[in-house]
Amino acid sequence: MTLALSRPDVGVRVPRAEPVIGLDVVDMSDDRARARKLVSAQDPYLSGHYPDVPIFPGVFTIDSVVQTARALLIDREPGSSPRLQVLVSAQFTAPLQPGDRFEVAVHVLDPKAVDPEGTRRIKAQCIRGDGITAGRMTLLMGGIDR
């Protein structure tokens, strides 16, 4: 089964901190999801991060990954409330700047394994539109009901 969510759907179906929606579109199938995001020069947080050479903040890159993982896990486990438990590793390898489109690719490692606390291990990669990897992450998401 494949599911695609548009920006308005993402805002309704994927719980997040206001006012940031870190995704424009999410596509899901099996235990993988791909999301896309356009870094807009009008985003208010870019003006101060860094004024002469704006860069999409790493914390928002992490949040985009978390939102993608949450969308996937909520779709797979309706009624669950997955939350970031641990950011095991994060590596930022190239900047994301205004006008860049990037894709977040996440997959659940060992999708059948859920520990007693309902935690899943997620691997993620962020890829700019030019094919350059902007970041890699491993995270633990908890709160998944069995």
Descriptive overview:
With 146 residues, this protein is α+β, with helices and mostly antiparallel strands. The chain contains 2 helices and 7 strands; from the N terminus they run E-H-E-E-H-E-E-E-E. It has helices at 7-13, 58-76, and strands spanning 2-5, 25-29, 32-38, 83-92, 101-109, 120-128, 133-142. Strands 1-2-3-5-6-7-4 form a 7-stranded antiparallel β-sheet. The model has no long low-confidence stretch (mean pLDDT 85).
What is the strand and helix layout of this fold?
Elements: E1 2-5, H1 7-13, E2 25-29, E3 32-38, H2 58-76, E4 83-92, E5 101-109, E6 120-128, E7 133-142
Antiparallel strand pairs: 1-2, 2-3, 3-5, 4-7, 5-6, 6-7
Give the structure's gist in a few sentences.
It contains two helices and seven strands, in the order E-H-E-E-H-E-E-E-E. With 146 residues, it is α+β, with helices and mostly antiparallel strands. The protein has a seven-stranded antiparallel β-sheet.
Neighbour order of strands in the largest sheet: 1-2-3-5-6-7-4
**Biggest sheet features:** 7 strands, antiparallel
Identify the quaternary structure here: single chain
Q: Determine the structural class based on helices, strands and strand pairing.
A: alpha+beta
Alpha-carbon Rg, integer: 15 Å
User: Considering DSSP H and I runs of 4 or more, what fraction of the residues is helical?
Assistant: 10-25%
Shape by Cα distribution: globular
